[in-house]
Amino acid sequence: MQKQFLEAGKIVNTHGVTGEIKVQPWCDSPEVLTDFDTLYLSPTEPVQVKKAYVHKNCVVMRLTGVDTCEAAEALKNRILYLNRDDVELPEDLVFIQDILGLTVFDTRTGETIGTLRDVNQGAGHDLYIIRRDGKPDALIPACKPFLKNIDLEKGIITVETIEGLIE
């Protein structure tokens, strides 16, 4: 089941003395977070974003009602969430949170490799980290020609490895 609210970043500090917060983004790029007018501290706790800009790989935000350094400090270490309905993803992209835990199947060997444990986002492409029973994690590039299909309904990621990639 897909989560309605997706983790988007963590409030790591205050910025300045007028209540701005510094957010470590968990999105593809910090700029993604600057496009939202509403974020959430919890599913029932929306916050309005008055201003947001990228500063040193973080996002500095001013939230409605957070006008002092003390108010911003009280938000430190809180997680910010996006509402899935507020995001328009291209058809060929998925949210990482939706694929974690999916079974990874290799068409070359006809066997299940394991389950997707994490995604390491690199400059060129993502790298899938796959948990295997009783073996070290496998690493598979999340790009063509290795990544063949992601089926969220069936819960399966289909890949095609090459000899020596995960042995």
From the structure above, extract its key features.
167 residues; mainly beta; Elongation Factor Tu (Ef-tu), domain 3; SH3 type barrels; 2 domains; six-stranded antiparallel beta sheet; six-stranded mixed beta sheet; 3 helices; 8% helix; elongated
Largest sheet report:
6 strands, antiparallel
In one word, what is the shape? elongated
- Low-confidence stretches are none
Strand order of the largest sheet: 3-4-5-2-1-6
Cα distance spanning the termini: 32 Å
Cα Rg: 19 Å
Could you tell me the number of beta strands?
A: 12
Secondary-structure class = mainly beta
The CATH topology of the largest domain is given as Elongation Factor Tu (Ef-tu), domain 3
Integer average pLDDT: 92
**Separate helix tally:** 3
Helix proportion of residues, in percent? under 10%
Task: State the fourth-level CATH superfamily of the largest domain.
Answer: RimM
CATH architectural designation of the largest domain: Beta Barrel
CATH hierarchy, class of the largest domain: Mainly Beta
Domain count: the total is 2
Taken as a percent bin, the fraction of beta residues is: over 45%
Topology pattern, helix = H, strand = E: EEHEEEHEHEEEEEE
